[in-house]
Structure formats: structure tokens, C-alpha cells
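Possible regression after last week's pipeline update?

I re-ran a chain I had predicted before the update to compare outputs. Posting the input and the new output here so someone can diff against the archived version. Not blocking, just want to make sure nothing changed silently.
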Amino acid sequence: MNDQEHNLTAQHVATSPLQGRQIWLTRPHEQSAGLQKTLQELGARSFNLPLLLIVPVEPQGITKTRLQNLDQYDLVFYVSSNAAKAGMDLISSWWPQYPAHILNFAVGSSTAGVLGSHGLAVDYPRERMDSEAMLALPGLQEIAGKKALIVRGIGGREILAEGLLARGARVDYAELYERKLPQYTKTYLKNCLQEHPPEAIVISSGEAMDNLKALFSSWYSEWAQLPLHVASSRLQEHACAAGFENVVVMVGANDAAIIKGLLFAFAGSQSAGSQSAGSQSAGSQSAGSQSTGA
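New output (post-update):
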């Protein structure tokens, strides 16, 4: 976590609205360590229930050829931190010196940080973290004739590729991992609810949200009321379409945005709790989060 993120949390640590709150994190364990540490410093009780199992795929055939011929591309896109990690692990084995002419793009600051740790210059959207925001970057407005490589997992949204193709670019994929549903027993999940009853479940992808529903909806009658805190308005729409009814929208998926969103959300609930019994708070919006109900 960088200095800006640390300063953000330090401002609130003395009277943290997260004190004693039970927050579920759903990214893979190794990706949640920094966020978990900050939440604990703010007095929250964090619990990690990964909702995506990331399984590397050994590159073969055309994917291997594309990576070995990386210097033939003008633009390379990394659509997640998992894509950046998998991509750089493989690319560095064939390209000790990354091709200098390539323009690199990341979906957000966390993914950009992975690439930056390998010494790459990278452009990424600051306000939103999705394909639409990437396509809005100034450097991608005039790309006719350019050759682009999208590094990602198997499957996923086609918005980025469609947008690049519409602007005259040629697009290839390098799919380097699979996202699978983790296997948890019903007994384990029941224990999670009993021992760590969630007051916020942080969700940063539609697939993780779908997996949450798949794991709980068949046996837990109140699954639709699970308190989701999602990373974008697009995920809010996804949640409502899936049947979730208790959804808070945050300002992004990186650690600083998640902390900010949680702080605002629970500060708002504290304010609501201090109102008189005859008044009721109605899901007010703030710079950090906004509450929705289906």
C-alpha cells in the first residue's frame, strides 16, 4: 500500500467507523494481504473467502507463439492483476528485455503496479477500472492499423476487443489462466456465516459475485440480503440482475478505493443510527460510496 493509501487510513484510525465491523474479502489470499492489514489497523475484523480460484494455463500453440513474438505488437493490454502477473512471468522468460516500443495499458492502478514493478511504463484509467474506461484513454483514440495483444484469462468480456477493432486495430488474445469456482462444503460456509457474520462483502468482479450466489443460494434462504460492497456501477447492475438486494457501490477496486468506500458507508450507517427513532436515513450518496436496494 502506497503513502497516499496509508495517509487515507491514518486520518480515520482514531475514530474509525470500521471499528469491530466484520468485512469479508473475496480476492485470492495473496492479493488481499495488504487490504486485510489496513482493515485490521482500522479496527475491522476481516475474513478472507476467496471466490475465484486462479489456475494457470500452460501457453501452447498460438498463445505461445504470440508471446514469443511480442515485439510484433504495438499495444499490449493487461485486464487484471492476475493477467499482469501471469503475463510478466511468462514474457520475462522469453524477453529478458521487454520490447521498448510497446505501449502498455492496464485496467487500473493495481494492475499497473504489477507492471511497474517490472520496470514498464503503463497507462491506465484513474476514475473507473473497466474496459470502457480503458477505451476512453487519449492514447487509444487513433490506433488504426496498430496490432494489439490482450492478456487475460480464458473467456471474459469482449468490450475491449470490440472497441479496438472498431477503431481499426488488429487484436489477438493471450489467455493465460482459468477462473474456477472454489470448492467449499456447505458445513464450512455455514460456519463462516455463524463465526464471521458479514457486515460487508467486498466484490470486485462479476464472476466472483456469480460464484458467491452459486455457493450460497441453494441452501441459504437469506442469500439475497448478503451485504455486497461492489467496485463499480456496472457491478451494481450485475448484482441487482442476479437478485442481490443489499448493494453498496464503491469508487473502485484498488485498496485505497475499497477503504474509502467502506469508511464512507459505515460512517453513514453510524449517522443513521444516531437519528431519532422517528426518522430514517434513505441510502444517501457520498464521494466514497452509494447505497442501492433492489
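Follow-up from reviewer: compared with the archived run. The CA atoms of residues 67 and 91 lie 6 Å apart. Marking as no regression found.
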